[in-house]
Amino acid sequence: MNRLAFHILLTASLICGPFLPSALGQQTVLDKRISLEVKERSIPEVIKLIRRQTGYFISYANHELDANKKVTQTYKEMRVEDLLRSLWKPQDIDLRVVGNTIEVRTLEAKGSGSRLGPRGNIEGRVRTIDFREISYARVSFKESNRGILTDSLGRFGFKGIEAGEYTLQISAVGYEEHELDVEVKASQTSPVEILLEEGGYSLDDVLIEGKSLSKEMAEQAIVVNTINASNIQAQTLDVAKVLDKVEGVRIRQSGGLGSTTSISINGLTGNAIRFYYNGIPSDFLGGGFQLNTLPISNVDRIEVYKGVMPANIGTDALGGGINVATNDDGIKKIDLSYQFGSFNTHRAAASITRPLGERWFINLNANYNYSDNNFEMEVGNNTYDPSLPFPTGTETIRVRRFHDAFSAFLGNALVGYSNVEKGLSVKMGVYVTAIYKELQHGIRVGFVPIGEALYRNQDSYFKLDVEKNFSDKLSFFYAGVGGYSRLQTRDSTQ
């Protein structure tokens, strides 16, 4: 069977998390209202929660905060600026947004915190001796060790400084430290120009290690290949095509979109291999779950188990299993994709994740596939002799398929709750699948097509996951699935 197809992919992705800045302007992000419920949290922990909801880094000097102070407070629809100012009380702060960072600068530079007496300002710039700006150099007051970082143009400023004489300490990686005496006059701004010379300092090697979920699973005692889909989500691929590139996995597809797919792992196939979608056996999800209809854009990772299955999703799979996991990490994310191909093929996918407060989040995933599957194929055809009542031979002819359209929908809505302090995680999800298939032939391509038979399958399921960690060595995990399935086959051939 020969099939030639072309594909066009249109993908739009918007991630509003801590790794990419949102499109909010400076004043917009400071005016944004957020809600937090904080109980016995340190101020740095509260700042991390603010970052999670806004998607902005918050830059501040550690020594300017009482890191041991515990906060118990409910913030309801509070402006980001007002919330940050409340954390720094009784100190006054100046807020500025640079790129995807909210810079917090204290207005008081002296350790006494007194606000009596006349005050002035300091503005300046840190540059090299050949007048190149030095970004993120630290400028601090020797008297209090309070300071700030320069911006990308080497600029800095202090406001509301009590009039008097001070010593500024300036330091930057790769440059000699420098001290400068400055006088602050009442109701005036003192300009400061600082030039640093390059120094012979060097840092020791710094090694930062972190393991993704995919890497942690790959290092388990169980033989598992974990495919991280984040690097290939923009490609025109489905899960079956990705799996076909995994060592020991072979994919065979009998036709176009929606056709039967046979997968073998290390030579084993059929009932020896089981398939899962977020840990749910594909048997429970009906025909809407097929590896060749799942777009890679909605997938977070693919787990390929060869042989022994893990206890949390293990069933009677002797040869291994494949688990397709979608993204449910609670980080703000919107991902939309659309593909158009030959034979009137359309494939659309959407994934939306949004936090709901401090510990709750919602995740929506959906994908839809449709194709007429009217491609040409080569089939055997009987030849006849007019003088004989039976076929005298066969010939190969090229024909176009008809009445072979296919459509499939798979959607799920998940609500999650995570409490790291208590080691508790709860996820509740609803899954809906629907499949429509026009049948042109039976199991095999015959000489006479059926041309009128239809197949429909609708399924809906509810899944509940509860995980509780009591200690590093003791944990409890429950996964329950219940649902409804309806299958219909119609054949009106006369």
In short:
The chain has helices spanning 26-31, 43-54, 80-88, 213-218, 239-243; strands at 7-15, 33-42, 57-59, 70-79, 93-98, 101-106, 119-128, 138-141, 147-149, 155-162, 164-171, 178-184, 189-196, 224-228, 249-253, 261-265, 273-277, 280-281, 299-306, 320-326, 333-341, 345-356, 360-371, 376-384, 391-400, 406-419, 424-439, 453-469, 475-490. With 494 residues, the protein is mainly beta.
Explain the overall architecture.
This protein is mainly beta. Helix content is 8%, strand content 49%. The chain has 5 helices and 29 strands. The protein has an 8-stranded antiparallel sheet with strand order 1-21-22-23-26-27-28-29, with no helix packed on it. Strand 8 (138-141) and strand 9 (147-149) form a beta hairpin. It is elongated and about 120 Å long. Mean pLDDT is 76; it is low at 1-26 and 109-116.
